[in-house]
Write a sequence for this structure.
């Protein structure tokens, strides 16, 4: 994958913002393996799952002021769309999903000026 700074490496990887950074990183990861058409779909799925596991471990280790990543997991599923393209879909563990839904509700409740 291309060299970039991951969210868990940033000083602002704390609290709810760590969840935002995690989602951005996960999107980057899924996009990368979806676009890698030089490999078989099974290989891309395996590599994406391994990368997602490492990403979650890095957030569990480095995110501060949150327990959102503790004892959680992501399962990467694959489908082939109507055009024959591989789509990778992350399925979140129930605990991680609860943290993400709480964050979504919190962001929906915020008044925009």
């Amino acid at each position: 994958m291309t060299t970039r700074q991951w969210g868990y490496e940033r000083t602002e990887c704390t609290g709810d913002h760590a969840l935002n950074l995690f989602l951005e990183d996960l999107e980057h990861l899924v996009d990368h393996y979806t676009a890698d058409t030089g490999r078989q779909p099974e290989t891309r799925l395996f590599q994406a799952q391994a990368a997602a596991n490492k990403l979650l471990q890095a957030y569990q280790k480095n995110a501060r002021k949150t327990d959102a990543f503790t004892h959680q997991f992501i399962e990467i599923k694959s489908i082939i769309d109507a055009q024959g393209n591989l789509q990778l879909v992350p399925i979140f563990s129930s605990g991680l999903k609860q943290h993400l839904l709480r964050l979504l509700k919190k962001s929906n409740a915020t008044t925009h000026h």
Observations:
- The two ends are 38 Å apart (CA to CA).
- DSSP finds three helices and two strands in the chain.
- The longest strand covers residues 74-80.
